[in-house]
Amino acid sequence: MLQFELTPQQKELQAKVREFAIKEILPAIWYYDEKGEIPVFLLKKAFVAGFMNTDIPKKYGGKEFGLIENVILTEEISAVCPGMATSIFDNSLGLVPIYLCENEKLREKYLPLIVREFKRICFATSEPTMGSDVAGMRCRAEKKGNDYILNGTKYWITNAGVSDYMSVFATIDPAKQHEGICAFLVEKNWEGVSVGQSIPKLGQRCSNTAGINLKNVRVPNENVIAEPGKGFVLAMKTFSRTRPSIGAFAVGAARSAMEYAIDYAKKRRVFGTNISNFEAIQFKIAEMYQKVETSRLLVWKAAWEADNGIDPTISASIAKFYATETAMEVVNDALQILGGYGYTKMFPVEKLLRDIRLFSIYEGTSEVQRLIVSGHVLNNYKPTMPPLEDLPLIRGLDLNEPSAKNVTAWRCRMCGHIHYGEEPPDECPSCFFPKTAFKKIWPVG
Ligand SMILES: Cc1cc2nc3c(=O)[nH]c(=O)nc-3n(C[C@H](O)[C@H](O)[C@H](O)COP(=O)(O)OP(=O)(O)OC[C@H]3O[C@@H](n4cnc5c(N)ncnc54)[C@H](O)[C@@H]3O)c2cc1C
Fold first, then answer.
1. What are the pocket residues of ligand 1 if the criterion is a CB atom closer than 6 Å to any ligand atom?
2. pTM over 0.85
């Protein structure tokens, strides 16, 4: 059964988080955006309100929300501030490898702690010299007795500066590429772990991004998230579960920009009338709404697949690159509708535009999503239509006529020319390909 309506519980969650975002986050965030600093107190408020770590399984004391609930939640936070959405939901990104891994003892040790206490966990695959090419990482993991020793630098790590724990991906040998990748839960206060300065950014300035340096960091075997050879697949599975949330960030930000634009258009008077009376503005608004709605459908589909045991990889990629790219168009159009005010820091649209630019870069750029989707379509997609050369496109013959059943038709597989007769011609009269280019298309079968 197809169902697009939210359940009463989901609606209640949406209303609660919406109220939280507007009352708690919105008024506080401008100051931190200007300062370029993460408001940890807002993360704490989100934690206390129950909007962080929502996907931790019940077995470990968590809420075990599905991805649908999580995308409902993230849309609302991002509608107010995409940077806070990134910071709050970074814990989910850091935790997914732990849910998916084989190390039950690790889950038993850390998950209840993260449910009870205000702990942050970040996710670290990227490095100064690599982002898209995850298999090309250089951070080394060397087995020493029962432990691993980590050496290297992770870069661009969201919340690195405020995290207690880190899901760190490394390699036993860069030459092994995918087969060398492993992952570990590292505690920030362990010897040899240091975090770099906060990286100044165009947008999402209230989310912390920093590098992590690992110098002879000893990781006990109990903290292995993925053994060598299993880390790459784990990272990819993690992204399949988290990319719908990035799509939801985009939906939220695009939706609020659209709402600001609608409000402005209904009130702004130009040439003696409201600008909402101009067709050019109306069409923009129609397209903005169309993009917000279609993006949300794609995001929910990917989340639904993940919640129902279907591999969401392709839907997650489609949702991410569609929603994040259309959000750029929507927010840009919203800024245009607000005219000069849209360009100022006195209104929220310029911040949304700066913030959302990141969505098509992190967790796999738009180019990477296109690689994933094109790889699927070209190699695994099962077409429903016959191949072009087999199509029974029978022009010039009325199949309703009883005599049609006595006719034989041949189609040139090169140019599509149709020949009627018991035998194909020796040569196609249209493209001059030989007899062998012809295929019998009628009678069918
Ligand atoms: C603010 C911020 C927060 C981040 N948070 C995290 C985090 O928490 N954890 C983490 O691990 N990483 C994080 N990242 C890193 C992010 O995931 C990477 O920046 C991203 O994956 C792109 O990698 P890159 O920057 O190295 O670009 P590159 O991989 O060097 O790519 C450069 C350009 O080339 C394109 N390109 C690359 N390969 C191909 C190809 N095969 N075909 C066509 N085009 C290609 C890319 O799409 C891009 O446009 C964050 C980044 C930012 C900016």
1. 122-126, 130-133, 156-158, 201, 204, 209, 358, 361-363, 365, 367-368, 371
2. yes
